[in-house]
Amino acid sequence: MANKFSKLVKTVYKLPKFSHEYLLTKLFCSQVKYANTSRVKIHRISNTDAELSLANSKRVQNHIGGVHAVAASLLAESATGIVFGMNVPDSHLPLLKSMTVNYNRRMQGDLKAIATLTTEQIQTIESAEKGDLVVAVTITDESGQEPIECLMNWAWVPKKRK
């Protein structure tokens, strides 16, 4: 199933490869202003996964020079929201229902997020009028470790109530 967002992504991938990251990032950040402020960068989007990163720059640092907790949560929310949003029909609204973030250790350097949906989850989104599911996301830092664990529960509901 294609929605407006997935069609735009497909159009970007028809353009020269060197422009993909830049255009995908601009497309997303034009709609999600805080992601633009924090300078979230999109590397890859598909119906089943999304890969994003966040540089450890001054604008997102905490008092000890690491990526701020809220900025790391934004990265997880953005990655999961993108892959989820690729599959929600235009007749429905994607909504973040809840998020649980466990900070296991100090983050070192830049962060990378990879969010994934299973085939079964995609089928559920396509077939159910409304519902919710947890979108898997892995956040790693420059050490290659996972400093935080995130559970992002996304819901979809019809835009027009019956």
SSE topology:
Layout: H1 4-12, H2 20-31, H3 33-38, E1 41-45, E2 49-54, H4 69-85, E3 92-103, E4 111-116, H5 119-127, E5 131-141, E6 148-158
Antiparallel strand pairs: 1-2, 2-4, 3-6, 4-5, 5-6
The average pLDDT score comes to: 92
Number of helices: 5
* Major beta sheet summary: 6 strands, antiparallel
Strand content: 25-35%
* Spatial order of the strands forming the largest sheet: 1-2-4-5-6-3
Shape: globular
Describe this structure in words.
This protein is α+β, with helices and mostly antiparallel strands. The protein is 33% helix and 31% strand. It contains five helices and six strands, in the order αααββαββαββ. It has a six-stranded antiparallel sheet with strand order 1-2-4-5-6-3. A hairpin with a 6-residue loop joins strand 5 (131-141) and strand 6. It is globular. The mean pLDDT is 92.
Please name the defining characteristics of this protein.
six-stranded antiparallel sheet, alpha+beta, globular
Brief summary of the model shown:
This protein has 162 residues and is α+β, with helices and mostly antiparallel strands. The protein contains 5 helices and 6 strands. The protein is globular, with a radius of gyration of 16 Å.
